[in-house]
């Protein structure tokens, strides 16, 4: 199935600057491929420094008018965008499966998840409240107001090519900011389809500008160097996030960084075994393990270890590996050749270090970028596979003795994005949740993200929060007003 199966109004092969669909100044393009088949889906412009500057110019020019639009009217436009996303959900899902690979049931879920942020911030934008403080003296009054931070640069990844955009753009627009967005060059069509629907919704020219580019470093440098860009929101690797963090120092930008993870998934002896297995499967193998919050290390207590592994193996072997467009598929390909080579190398190295293969462990005959769902036991915290983000369908299982050891292993990482644990003890729930050094903790639950909750990490997993009321605050500045001479 090709791009012809998607509504042609949503398939755009151009960037979008100042309300115009445009090509790269150089004429250069980026080829986009279907990871399941290797088929070329199309091409988009490979924009660079000049186009990025033009996009910042457009966002800067549109800022005053957009900031002055009443919050209720901004909410109406966002609501219209939401309605159009829902109306075109099937096309958006098919487009995403074609360029990203995940099965249709997952892309349909992502479109609804992404849309939920647009709906939430359409509502939340009307609630950017100021405060009035107790008067310091009789002749003074003290209050604060919330104002949009200004032009926002957003850089989004390929693993959630719809929701990572709406999670940044919706609160920025609701706050009264304008945006320059650089989506991943691996999955630009999903981004451009959202842009087409935003335009159709009536969001004014220059409010959202989209740069498609393979020149990530050059584009990132322009965005971080320009003093008109007051906020940078980035989702991606810790390595790149640290570079952008450093580059933003000269202009002291506000930052939201959602970086790498090394999520522990802890199963205690008293856990509901069926629930823990189901949670581990969905947390680990969603999007072929290519999520920043997916279980990276599965820690299982001695008493339940063998029973858990046996049931986990049975469940994992039920996964159907194949093209995401086939309704029977439950596990799609990984994104590219570099990804599958890395995954295969990590699995081989773990076995050479003493890990035992329970199931999988090799590339899958479904296609070049498919890897069989894999379980390894006998993994220790010293092995590379327990210390690095895998980003693939591989589950390393680590055995532990007691709560203290589980917490020590879980926290022995520079990352702190998501953690999960399963237990039936209410005492353990509180103690373990408080002891884990993570921004988000799933308790008897394998999936934790939604629009009402603050999503983000601690330590080297990032700064700031997306979703919830905090996600709106991250695009606003607080201005304190001190009024004197009150007689």
Automatic annotation (TrEMBL):
<protein>
    <submittedName>
        <fullName>Succinate-semialdehyde dehydrogenase (NADP(+))</fullName>
    </submittedName>
</protein>
<dbReference type="InterPro" id="IPR010102">
    <property type="entry name" value="Succ_semiAld_DH"/>
</dbReference>
<dbReference type="InterPro" id="IPR016160">
    <property type="entry name" value="Ald_DH_CS_CYS"/>
</dbReference>
<dbReference type="InterPro" id="IPR050740">
    <property type="entry name" value="Aldehyde_DH_Superfamily"/>
</dbReference>
<feature type="domain" description="Aldehyde dehydrogenase">
    <location>
        <begin position="21"/>
        <end position="480"/>
    </location>
</feature>
<dbReference type="GO" id="GO:0005829">
    <property type="term" value="C:cytosol"/>
</dbReference>
<dbReference type="GO" id="GO:0009450">
    <property type="term" value="P:gamma-aminobutyric acid catabolic process"/>
</dbReference>
<dbReference type="Pfam" id="PF00171">
    <property type="entry name" value="Aldedh"/>
</dbReference>
<feature type="active site">
    <location>
        <position position="258"/>
    </location>
</feature>
<dbReference type="InterPro" id="IPR015590">
    <property type="entry name" value="Aldehyde_DH_dom"/>
</dbReference>
<dbReference type="InterPro" id="IPR029510">
    <property type="entry name" value="Ald_DH_CS_GLU"/>
</dbReference>
<keyword id="KW-0560">Oxidoreductase</keyword>
<dbReference type="InterPro" id="IPR016163">
    <property type="entry name" value="Ald_DH_C"/>
</dbReference>
<dbReference type="GO" id="GO:0004777">
    <property type="term" value="F:succinate-semialdehyde dehydrogenase (NAD+) activity"/>
</dbReference>
<dbReference type="InterPro" id="IPR016162">
    <property type="entry name" value="Ald_DH_N"/>
</dbReference>
<comment type="similarity">
    <text>Belongs to the aldehyde dehydrogenase family.</text>
</comment>
<dbReference type="InterPro" id="IPR016161">
    <property type="entry name" value="Ald_DH/histidinol_DH"/>
</dbReference>
């Amino acid at each position: 199935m090709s791009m012809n199966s998607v509504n042609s109004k949503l398939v755009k092969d151009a960037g979008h600057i100042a309300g115009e669909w445009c090509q790269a100044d150089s004429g250069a393009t980026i080829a986009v491929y279907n990871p399941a088949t290797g088929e070329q889906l199309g091409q988009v412009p490979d924009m660079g420094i000049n186009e990025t500057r033009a996009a910042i110019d457009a966002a800067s020019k549109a800022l005053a008018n957009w900031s002055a639009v009443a919050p209720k009217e901004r909410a109406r436009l966002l609501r219209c965008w939401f309605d159009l996303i829902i109306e075109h959900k099937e096309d958006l899902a098919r487009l995403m499966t074609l360029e990203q690979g995940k099965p249709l049931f997952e892309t349909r879920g992502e479109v609804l998840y992404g849309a939920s942020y647009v709906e939430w911030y359409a509502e939340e934008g009307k609630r950017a409240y100021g405060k009035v403080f107790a008067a310091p003296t009789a002749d003074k009054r003290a209050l604060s107001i919330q104002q949009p931070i200004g032009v926002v640069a957003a850089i989004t990844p390929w693993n959630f090519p719809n929701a990572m955009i709406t999670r940044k753009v919706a609160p920025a627009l609701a706050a009264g900011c304008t945006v320059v967005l650089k989506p991943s060059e691996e999955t630009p069509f999903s981004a451009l389809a959202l842009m087409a629907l935003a335009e159709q919704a009536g969001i004014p020219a220059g409010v959202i500008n989209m740069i498609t580019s393979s020149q990530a470093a050059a584009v990132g440098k322009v965005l971080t160097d320009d003093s008109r860009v007051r906020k940078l929101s980035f989702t991606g690797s810790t390595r790149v996030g640290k570079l952008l963090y450093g580059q933003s120092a000269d202009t002291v930008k506000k930052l939201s960084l959602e970086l790498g993870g090394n999520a522990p998934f802890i199963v205690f002896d008293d856990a509901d075994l069926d629930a823990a297995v189901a949670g581990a499967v969905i947390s680990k193998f969603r999007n072929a393990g290519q999520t920043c919050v997916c279980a990276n290390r599965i820690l299982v207590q001695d008493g339940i270890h063998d029973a858990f592994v046996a049931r986990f193996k049975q469940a994992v072997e039920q996964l159907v590996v194949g093209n995401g467009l086939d309704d029977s598929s439950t596990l799609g390909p990984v994104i590219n050749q570099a990804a599958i080579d890395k995954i295969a190398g990590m699995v081989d190295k773990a076995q050479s270090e003493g890990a035992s293969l329970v199931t999988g462990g090799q590339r899958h005959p479904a296609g070049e970028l498919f890897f069989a769902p894999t379980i390894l036991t006998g993994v220790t915290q010293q092995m590379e596979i327990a210390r690095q983000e895998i980003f693939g369908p591989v589950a390393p299982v680590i055995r532990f003795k007691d709560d203290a050891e589980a917490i020590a292993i879980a926290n022995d990482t520079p990352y702190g994005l998501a953690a999960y644990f399963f237990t039936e003890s209410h005492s353990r729930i509180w103690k373990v949740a408080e002891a884990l050094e993570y921004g988000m903790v799933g308790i008897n639950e394998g999936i934790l993200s939604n629009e009402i909750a603050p999503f983000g990490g601690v330590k080297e997993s990032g700064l700031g929060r997306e979703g919830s009321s905090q996600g709106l605050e991250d695009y606003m500045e607080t201005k304190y007003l001190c009024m004197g001479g009150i007689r």
